[in-house]
Amino acid sequence: xxxxxxxxxxxxxxxxxxxxxxxxxxxxxxxxxxxxxxxxxxxxxxxxxxxxxxxxxxxxxxxxxxxxxxxxxxxxxxxxxxxxxxxxxxxxxxxxxxxxxxxxxxxxxxxxxxx
Amino acid sequence: xxxxxxxxxxxxxxxxxxxxxxxxxxxxxxxxxxxxxxxxxxxxxxxxxxxxxxxxxxxxxxxxxxxxxxxxxxxxxxxxxxxxxxxxxxxxxxxxxxxxxxxxxxxxxxxxx
Lengths: 115, 113
Known about the structure:
The complex is a heterodimer of chains A (115) and B (113).
Chain A: E1 5-7, E2 10-13, E3 19-24, E4 31-38, E5 42-50, E6 53-57, E7 64-68, E8 74-78, E9 87-94, E10 105-106, E11 110-114
Parallel strand pairs in A: 2-11
Antiparallel strand pairs in A: 1-3, 3-8, 4-5, 4-9, 5-6, 7-8, 9-10, 9-11
Chain B: E1 3-6, E2 11-14, E3 19-21, E4 23-26, E5 32-38, E6 44-50, E7 56-59, E8 62-65, E9 75-77, E10 86-93, E11 101-103, E12 107-112
Parallel strand pairs in B: 2-12
Antiparallel strand pairs in B: 1-4, 3-9, 5-6, 5-10, 7-8, 8-9, 10-11, 10-12
């Protein structure tokens, strides 16, 4: 079974631009979560989508948004980029058979550099 | 709220040494506990997990036991190899907060020959 895929793997943007990242979950997985990873803050939860609905949201500004499509693929968007948005963005998928016990499977990440 | 506290790194060990990485947690409900590993330039991979008290997760020689009385989930390996060099993350998932994961800050391990 193919794993979680994320595109693109690397991105360079300038301040003020916007960016869209894509995630394809493992086949059959209906939950997709997004995380931001930085050396200073570690792994921080952005949001989770299940059946096209945002189910959980972390403590990030409204510039960060996401959506999920009917095939469970997900995108996240960051508008008006700031230097501090430079990070590795990780996507994770899970089956969600039982809340709280599900293993999340991570993609390789998209490394975003904002200049 | 829920949180995970993980041993500060970096940790440097010689090959075949014993490894312990401490992890303690705070949770409002009955969490599942996980260890993930991240190799350079890659995403996180599940190493092992335990879903209830006294469960022991194990994989590739690594072990961790879910201790409810001490709210801990320490990672151990009897004999580390150079290939174990990576960053290790402890995490919890609490059914009270749906599928949201809470991660520790990560512990960098370097194993030298």
